[in-house]
Amino acid sequence: MASSILTEELGPRGRRRVAIATAASLVLLAVFAWFAIRQLADQGQLDWELWQPFIEARSWTFLLEGLVGTIQAAATAMVFVVAFGFLVALGRLSRTAPVRWLSGTYVEVFRSIPLLLLIFAVFFGVQNFVDLGIFWSLVVALTLYNSAVLAEIFRAGILSLEHGQTEAAQAIGLTYWPMMRIVILPQAVRRMIPAIVAQLATVTKDVSLGFVISFTEFVRKGQSFAQNEPRNNLQSYFMIGLVYFVLIWMLSRLARRLEVRQRKRYGAGKMVIGGGLEDLEALANEAEMDARVASLSLSRA
Amino acid sequence: MLADNADVIGEAALTTLWLTLFSFAGALVVGILIASFRVSPIKPLEWFATAFVSIFRNTPLLVVFFMFHFGLRRVGLDFGTGFRTAVAVMAMYTGAYMAEVIRSGINAVPPGQAEAGRAIGLPFTGLLATVVIPQAVRTVIAPIGNLFAANAKNTSIALTIGVVELTSAMRRLINQTAETWAAIIGIALIYTVVLLIAGQAFRLLEQRYAIKR
After folding, report:
1. Which CATH architecture has domain B6-209?
2. What ipTM, to 2 d.p.?
3. Do B58 and A211 touch (CB under 8 A)?
């Protein structure tokens, strides 16, 4: 994409320099790749017997059992995350001060604690009162953590609606809840769909942390697979990473597509994803969207 | 109970702190480097940077940890200790996100700045290093602060490769003392307080240095 603001049409000398640098960096990358491959081969990591398990169907039946667990946990958690996220976002915008204060604290607290700590907290801490089991402990922890993140995105989405919407609703005499239900939420939800899909990608990655409480998910399955004979750690984690990569890449691509479509529809205003958030995915999406919308408006102009 | 184990907790807190600071410093370096590659006119560097960012963005941190700790050790890429592995992995992981944030900052620098830099004869690297990146970083102080918080929270994942940091200490305390909630609340408070302080620090930095556009 060569960012247009940094380089302009190059002259003959500039072109020559870029050509030389391109050739040099290609050589450097090739040397790097050659060194990596030689190192892999020297240590016997390219031996067929280490990779051969991955063309056997029973290996994949074993591994995919973990992936099913991952997807189940992610999907279940996501339902609660969206529901809770909305409730907390509404709470943050409530006219009742204690409700506002309470949901504000909820967001602050659960955003400042590591997810891993929350998983342990739910798993060990709640055990004495109710036995949630591994699956539900993980789902509860994922919900607490991610709903705090999503609530802020939802709040930004609701606030991004034009003021005229609220004013019009009030002008025709709607009270708070009907206004929310009929006017504000349907529009907000529609704008939120890309953010929800992006959050689903994050949750799917987060499920891997269920590893620490022995939840049967993809990475744990990969680990036990690696410990079978032949011991192929490198190959197993490579495959796990690859499958994860494809899955998350598709989800975030879908989210981006939806976002571009929405931006075209609602105009390239300030986007809702990432507004003051510490969610890595949201931040990265924000950056990518800026670039994409810039190129979009350029191509249309 | 927390007071009895103050030494264990203190040591673990220091580990978390150093892990956070070292990996964040590394992430800044990686981020600036990869962002420069990504906007560079030299295609292979741009491809490399794009691949780097998308690999780390689309894989769970846990998988990256295991890949480095259990996998790449076999081919001679061994950092020695779990702590060092964690610093390296998190510098790359957070660095990939950092690169995206800095790139969005670069996109926000007005074209006139780059043009003026070229007009006085700066080469591409000089232009980036003295004109564009200093301004780019200053426009994205707030997102960088958020990355700091995310990175700090992610250090807990280092427990999976045997680093005794705060969350791992909490687990041990739960096992040993059975005073589950005291341990959870105590350790959670440490994270919250540290992140609050860091948040304030970044807010001050922002007030002092941010360029509002």
Report:
1. Orthogonal Bundle (1.10)
2. 0.91
3. no
